[in-house]
Amino acid sequence: MTVTADTGKPGLGRRAQILISHWAVGLALAAPLAWLVTGLFLNTLGPNPIETLTRGLGEWGLRYLLLGLAITPLANLLRRPGWVRYRRTIGLFAFGAIFLHLMSWIGLDHFFAWGSLWQEIVKRPFITIGMAGFVALIPLALTSTNGMIRRLGPKRWKTLHRLTYVVAIAGVVHFFLLVKADKTEPLIYAGATLALLAWRAQRWLADRHPA
Amino acid sequence: MLIKTRTDLTEADVTDHALYLRRREFMTGAIGASAFAAGVAGCAPEGGEANAAASSAKPQAPLKAARSRFSTTETPNEKADITGYTNFYEFGLDKGDAARKSHTLKPRPWTVVVDGEVAKPARFGIEDILKTYPLEERIYRLRCVEAWSMVVPWVGFPLASLVAKVQPTSRAKYVAFETLVDPVQMPGQRSSVLEWPYREGLRLDEATNPLTLLAVGLYGETLPNQNGAPIRLVVPWKYGFKSIKSIVRISFTATQPRTSWSMSAPREYGFFANVNPAVDHPRWSQATERRIGEFRRRPTLPFNGYGEQVASLYRGMDLARFY
Predict the structure, then answer these.
(1) How close B260 gets to chain A, by Cα (Å)?
(2) Is the Cβ of B266 closer than 8 Å to some Cβ of chain A?
(3) DSSP symbol at B224
(4) Does A107 contact chain B (CB < 8 Å)?
(5) What does the alpha-carbon distance between residue B131 and residue B236 come to, in Å, rounded to a whole number?
(6) Where does A59-201 show beta strands of DSSP type E?
(7) pLDDT (tens digit, 9 = 90+) per residue, B141-183?
(8) A176 and chain B: CB distance < 8 Å anywhere?
(9) Is it the case that residue B15 has pLDDT exceeding 70?
């Protein structure tokens, strides 16, 4: 227990606070994914559990992608620069959810039927696009460590991680193309993605042409 | 003789009907924990399952039905799954919606209008229908276009019997069906995800095929609302969207009628919609399906395994063109 500087009273230091809130964020992100995966074994996912699991993991993966993209605009608008520290955790949970979504599709839905899986990947545009999005996520996950950030340097790392925009767009298009009739939900995600990217676009333009 | 009545038992103590029907399996321990939980009062399972159990546990009137040689010997799916997992957009887009929200549907009184190219047009009350036609149990496979399937123990009578009664004229080549339109009873109809009423149709020879069923019941009882009460079509060799629910009108026509999914996405859903593993849906393969309750997918059968009865209807037809 450390003593806080200004009052001299006992309390948690800033580092401890950050650690606790980071864990809280991690647990909050893990909870829906854990609920889905354990639901498979507890039989709480309804009559078609594999479909529910695959779809649920995909939805949360997309939500976390957009949440990660929302950090910078929100931190900027609400003047909370400290929030940027949670972006990596969110991004990694997005990768994790999407990885599990892919594993559920490959291993549970199709039980490793590689021939028919490959057929689906090449024949169905929405799957091709989804797969491309996942492939683009891999270098982002691999370069998420402090070591890799140092090795790449801030400029190269930042350029590489702009791939997040591509991944988010791929995810939204994947979702939009797969829905049967009611496009409401995918359109909401599309709108959110557009707004988040538009914010970045206007900031980039403003930076290039300062008033 | 004095018959003492127990005063400590309430309706909540009554065993869930689905569990009661499978009591022998339960005694051997073959039924898993979740089914047991659904059967024990007060231990409701999560979300949709609890509501499905609640809706399917609602007492339905029993129906007398004879056995049929057209029934499959495969084991029917659990009643909780059949009644809890349905595509019925009139009540919402989620497959659990109809179980949760179809209590607003009033299947009595109900009239089915039969008109068009017939010598004897009529308006049948559902009570008349139940008294007129001897009922059979038909245990059929039902294959959804989304590539999942179930085995359902329907109770109904052949559509052919009704067709014979109304005497189609020589101009009648097709039979068209319509579902009820009433956004108060069917709140999902406030959304324009599909053009209401839900419409379907068959060629006349498909309609009079012995397999084609007008179903009024399920698992020996009258049809629950979420499964298309009080009367629906079952065409087991076609994708499930052809099996139109909650029918209010049957019209005999000279030209091919418009059908709802074909109107919504003509490149994806056709008039014939025969189950065919060789003809993919544009966005997914139809070669395999998930039988609800099974872990591995199974191969889809041409005509959903009913080729012996119906393949001759399509001799010479290009099934990839007429999907």
Answers:
(1) 12
(2) no
(3) P
(4) no
(5) 25
(6) none
(7) 999 999 999 999 999 999 999 999 999 999 999 999 999 999 9
(8) no
(9) no
